[in-house]
């Protein structure tokens, strides 16, 4: 068995604190503050197991209120209302809260991200003055009533209606169909006193599409107001500290000012006014302002994966089973090739998504602080947020599962955290948009060159639009051609034979492969859509048949963005051991990505079977190289020790 | 988009009752009896969510006792002790119990399979007379105390010791190290009055390896006996109706007759006697008699997957989202290509594993009813049980996860069953042997031609053994060469170019591909092991590096067995619509298996990139062909309606 290239290199020494500093980036201070605050609430992790749902939901509420007092949850609100005035910092704080109990995290997300975010982004000064100061402290709890039993992904088809009554200058909010009750609404079952309700707005008999209104649900004593019916959603797989519920509205009257009127308003005399003419455009502009929800879910998923990896890697460094290299001592399980193969690629992907998330957070911050204001950037941000959320949540699910199995039976005991991690994060793939639907939106943006608003997934329209263009035009418009230029630029000598002549550990090679795949998949989708329509098939049927290609193209796009973020981060680092170590991690991330899709690369002439096998060998070699620094790589996540629990798995002294 | 071959065929009509009859096979009566009994206990599914752990564990115990009264749980015991005298029937009954609450299932497994099985298989008449009648009724609850905190997979290294005290004619049982306490032991925390304890037997200062003894834990009032300490394992991810615990023994004395002495005994004067000379062989013969545990876990996993698929497929036939093929109506989500792609291959794999499990159950029955007695058959049975358990449990985890995501946010509510299905089945990949360890055992059996006992995984020995042979000899001994002969026999014209000239839907082609892969992977493992040892590497290090190939070879072997079982089942059916339908399912199973591993086939010259792409297209076409009969395919599992719960997802009237 000949030694592989990577193996000849020296093992880097990893300074954990320094690596943490790199991971923490510009929000190190905020992250540290949350890390310091969280251990006081470590007991919530146990409460989740021992308390009844009722008790636990009250306990989680208390913790959320205490966190609000520390300022950690209000970073994203304007300072004049008691916030921190820094949206990027609020995402970093939320990400770090992902190390703790996830019911607390989600309740924070509901109260400050969804409810607070809607008031801030969709409302105007009157709403800000009325609600923000109180909601930032948590004195006023609210909920975000968008999803209905019958409609989650397709928000434009909601069945709740708000009709303007001109005589009373009020809106009348009504649940019009059995499947139009608001469902899965966090904070609704117990604590919300008001709701931001998304409803079809009707003025003078004319529909204007979905708009948001503030509707009071309960009085100060917590009694339901007239016309409101609320039902608990009952026990859930996880997140049982969050009080999700269903809400029915029976002709509930709210004043005209209840309409969150930043983008559209109804005058007293019943005239609908908006600066945005197109109803679709208006709706998607509103939705677009809520993008921070998706950014937050992605961030929290990555944190949950980090917790799981920290436990599993340390367990692999304590647990021995079977004699292997010696007759006397059983082998550390992390010294088994298979165990490395199971954990290290997931560790590498988690690093990659961490840095991709950092870029995304920066873009979000720039867009919402007014640094960047053009519409194209906004759509790119929405696309990037959706795609990163999908990849991060799926990665978390996979990572937590593999880490749990890598801890054997012990991983099944609640005290070792995997039970809650698995159960609580499972819904992340679904909420803030089903991952597959989100990837379709990403693909639509790519295929139409962001010609329409992000959420406007009209499949028929998209298919017809693409079918109306020449494939070359699609590629031109999708900037996929720029990718190919990028391939040549990244490699020496114009890179004409980059797929055979470059070293397997050359980041230029990795980027070229990811870019080629994206470009080719997008072109393929365009071709298939055109061919189907040209053959006279129903456009919906065409879409259905091409759907898995659509998802694959979107995925390839987001994976390329993730890889670029990681490669650029490492390239910008000062030379030294840390750069060497992160280079290994980046190589492993990139190569396992190519390896996982090597069938596709072979099918498309970009990988010989010889080179494909060489990649698999190189992945094994990289794992062996990472093994000596695996503990440092997870310790740099700096998950506070009390949050790891799992004393039997990781020992008492481990962790940040 | 040209139409695919499969699409030109007519859609079969599926008679659900008739398909159920085929699935139920020879144990239809037993399965029906359990199906009739289960709905009375459907309320346990809700109790799991609403009761405290204490209450729920008592409730589950009650249900187990009531089920014992029906005779469903005692099928595998001799009739003279109140059993049914039919081991195959007992597996079928257990499999069907997998439709219900899984704490009940696992407690049944612990009491009757593990505890009862150990008494029956490892004990002799005195033990049978003392315990069987009472344990069959559940009057005597017991536990199976094998796993320790420090050792699960490597049972030979257990730290509990039983020393023979000749003067008293007693064994003294002691927990010798902190990590030698028995751990995760079902029934231990509350209900077991006795335990079958696995301990290192020491007689006259000499160790004889691990043996099993019956040790009383509690008196009739449930008080712990002297020298016994028991601790609750605490809340778990799932299965909280089972009282798992840790047990410490502090010099506990049991009479000489406590030793389960079917394979070895200690005479009164302290002489160790056994008909099996080799200690390793003796131990593995004992373990081998407990194979039904693994067969049972595999069976239950398949049932859990069936429940998940039934819910998800029916949800896909009710839920609509987004206009696609028509402007007026939203599309059924099961009509989306991606949704079919997500669910149907898993449905096909579940069918395949069902039939593979049927073959395995038959082999088990034959071995234990004395029809088949040779040692080789026994080892083949153990290998097959281990491999099927690994594949079935992983498939269940994957299927339940995908089905949950395919039901969106609704899938997250406990009322819709996925919460419990996920949490309860998660440990199946770990218990009765970690899946990866089991696959290593399978590989070892293949590589050594079952020369040694099944569980005897001495990696050093195995590596040295294989390294000592020529690769050809390994292939000769592993019967892999028979596979290649099988390839030629299965195809017309000697099948010299079967990988390019046969139709994609030809079962002969599928079998040839699966057989080629198995043969090639095994040869590759042998070559790599030899090369490493020849190069002077430490054999343990060699094993570690080849470990993922070892697992891949074992997996390929079991997948081949599974495919053969399915192909043979369908081939033996009478011509007609049902055969047509199952042929589609079998094709989808086989082709998605090849598709998933198409990179490997391309790397090894057995698939051109053109043909690989054609397979992907064919899979899409098969999914569209299966769509019209999808409801019937899941309805044939005949999961009793009350056990599905999920009224909002599947409607009130669905299910058997």
Automatic annotation (TrEMBL), chains A, B:
Keyword flag Oxidoreductase: yes
Family annotation (Gene3D superfamilies): Acyl-CoA dehydrogenase/oxidase, N-terminal domain (1.10.540.10), Butyryl-CoA Dehydrogenase, subunit A, domain 2 (2.40.110.10), Butyryl-CoA Dehydrogenase, subunit A, domain 3 (1.20.140.10)
Cofactors named for this entry: FAD
Family, as annotated: Belongs to the acyl-CoA oxidase family.
SUPFAM superfamilies: Acyl-CoA dehydrogenase C-terminal domain-like, Acyl-CoA dehydrogenase NM domain-like
Transmembrane parts of this sequence: none
Residue ranges of domain Acyl-CoA oxidase/dehydrogenase middle in the record: 143-252
Start and end residues of each Acyl-CoA oxidase C-alpha1 domain: 288-447
Domain of life: Bacteria
Domain Acyl-CoA dehydrogenase/oxidase N-terminal: 30-138
Organism: Nocardioides vastitatis
Protein name as catalogued: Acyl-CoA dehydrogenase
Domain Acyl-CoA oxidase C-terminal: 511-644
Keywords: FAD, Flavoprotein, Oxidoreductase
InterPro entries: ACOX_C_alpha1 (IPR055060), Acyl-CoA_Oxase/DH_mid-dom (IPR006091), Acyl-CoA_Oxase/DH_mid-dom_sf (IPR046373), Acyl-CoA_oxidase (IPR012258), Acyl-CoA_oxidase_C (IPR002655), AcylCo_DH-like_C (IPR036250), AcylCoA_DH/ox_N (IPR013786), AcylCoA_DH/ox_N_sf (IPR037069)
């Amino acid at each position: 068995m000949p030694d592989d290239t990577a193996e000849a290199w020296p093992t880097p020494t990893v300074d954990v604190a320094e690596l943490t500093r790199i991971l923490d980036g510009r929000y190190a201070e905020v992250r540290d503050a949350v890390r310091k605050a969280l251990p006081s609430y470590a007991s919530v992790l146990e409460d989740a197991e021992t308390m009844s749902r009722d008790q636990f939901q009250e306990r989680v509420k208390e913790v959320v209120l205490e966190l609000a007092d520390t300022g950690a949850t209000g970073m994203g609100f304007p300072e004049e209302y008691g916030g921190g005035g820094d949206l990027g910092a609020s995402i970093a704080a939320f990400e770090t809260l992902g190390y703790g109990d996830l019911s607390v995290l989600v309740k924070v997300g509901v109260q400050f991200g969804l409810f607070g975010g809607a008031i801030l982004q969709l409302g105007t000064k009157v709403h800000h003055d009325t609600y923000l100061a109180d909601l930032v402290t948590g004195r006023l709890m609210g909920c975000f009533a968008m999803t209905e039993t019958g409609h989650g992904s397709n928000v434009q088809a909601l069945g709740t209606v708000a009709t303007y009554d001109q005589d009373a200058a009020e809106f009348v909010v009504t649940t019009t169909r059995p499947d139009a009750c608001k469902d899965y609404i966090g904070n609704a079952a117990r604590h919300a006193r008001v709701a931001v309700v998304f409803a079809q707005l009707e003025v003078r008999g004319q529909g204007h599409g979905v708009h948001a209104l503030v509707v009071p649900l309960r009085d100060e004593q917590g009694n339901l107001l007239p016309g409101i019916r609320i039902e608990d959603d009952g026990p859930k797989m996880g997140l049982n500290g969050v009080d999700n519920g269903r809400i029915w509205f029976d002709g509930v009257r709210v004043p005209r000012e209840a309409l969150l009127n930043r983008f559209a308003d109804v005058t007293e005399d019943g005239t609908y006014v908006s600066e945005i003419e197109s109803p679709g455009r208006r709706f998607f502009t509103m939705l677009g302002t809520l993008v921070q929800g998706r950014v937050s879910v992605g961030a929290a998923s990555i944190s949950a994966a980090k917790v799981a990896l920290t436990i599993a890697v340390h367990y692999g460094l304590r647990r021995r089973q079977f004699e292997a290299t010696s007759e006397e001592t059983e082998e550390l399980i992390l010294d088994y090739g298979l165990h490395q193969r199971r954990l290290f690629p997931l560790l590498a992907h988690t690093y990659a998504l961490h840095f991709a998330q950092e870029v995304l957070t920066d873009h979000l911050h720039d867009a919402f602080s007014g640094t960047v204001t053009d519409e194209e950037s906004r759509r790119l941000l929405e696309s990037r947020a959706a795609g990163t959320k999908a990849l991060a949540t799926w990665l978390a699910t996979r990572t937590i599962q593999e880490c749990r199995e890598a801890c054997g039976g012990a991983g099944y005991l609640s005290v070792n955290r995997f039970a809650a991690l698995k159960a609580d994060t499972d819904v992340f793939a679904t909420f803030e948009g089903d991952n597959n639907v989100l990837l379709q939106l990403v693909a639509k943006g790519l295929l139409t060159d962001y010609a329409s608003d992000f959420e406007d997934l009209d499949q028929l329209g998209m298919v017809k639009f693409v079918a109306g263009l020449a494939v070359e035009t699609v590629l031109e418009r999708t900037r996929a051609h720029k990718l190919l230029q990028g391939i040549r630029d990244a490699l020496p000598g114009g890179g004409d034979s980059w797929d055979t002549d470059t070293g397997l550990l050359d980041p230029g090679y990795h980027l070229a492969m990811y870019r080629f795949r994206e470009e080719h998949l997008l072109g393929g989708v365009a071709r298939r859509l055109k061919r189907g329509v040209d053959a006279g098939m129903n456009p919906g049927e065409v879409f259905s048949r091409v759907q898995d290609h659509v998802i694959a193209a979107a995925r390839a796009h987001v994976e390329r963005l993730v890889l670029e973020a990681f490669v650029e981060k490492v390239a910008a680092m000062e030379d030294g051991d840390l750069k060497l170590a992160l280079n290994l991690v980046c190589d492993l991330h990139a190569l396992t990505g190519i390896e996982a899709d090597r069938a596709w690369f072979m099918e498309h002439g970009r990988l010989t079977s010889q080179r494909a096998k060489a990649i698999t060998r190189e992945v094994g070699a990289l794992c062996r190289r990472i093994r000596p620094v695996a503990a440092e790589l997870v310790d740099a996540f700096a998950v506070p020790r009390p949050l790891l629990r799992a004393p039997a798995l990781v020992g008492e002294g481990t962790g940040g």
